[in-house]
């Protein structure tokens, strides 16, 4: 039973809490910096923040897939 609880807690942290918090802070920081240091309109700032966050999510994920799955099969 202890092993199941440990697994549940670890998986919750690893797949939900830590990535969610990290992405939230990245969004908040990029929005703050764009608001403070640029003269972009509000809508453009929001979409720029989305683009920054998608890049943050996609690049490490794609690198991991290439390194561990695709490149490992060659």
TrEMBL record:
GO BP annotations listed: mitochondrial fission
InterPro entries on file: Mitochondrial_18_kDa_protein
A cellular component term, taken from the record's GO annotations: mitochondrion
PANTHER family associated with the record: MITOCHONDRIAL FISSION PROCESS PROTEIN 1
Family: Belongs to the MTFP1 family.
Name of this protein: Mitochondrial fission process protein 1
């Amino acid at each position: 039973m202890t092993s199941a609880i440990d697994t549940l807690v670890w998986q919750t942290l690893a797949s939900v809490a830590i990535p969610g918090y990290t992405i939230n802070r990245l969004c908040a920081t990029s929005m703050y910096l764009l608001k403070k240091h640029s003269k972009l309109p509000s809508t453009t700032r929001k979409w720029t923040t989305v683009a920054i966050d998608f890049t943050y999510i996609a690049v490490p994920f794609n690198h991991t897939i290439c390194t561990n799955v695709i490149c490992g099969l060659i």
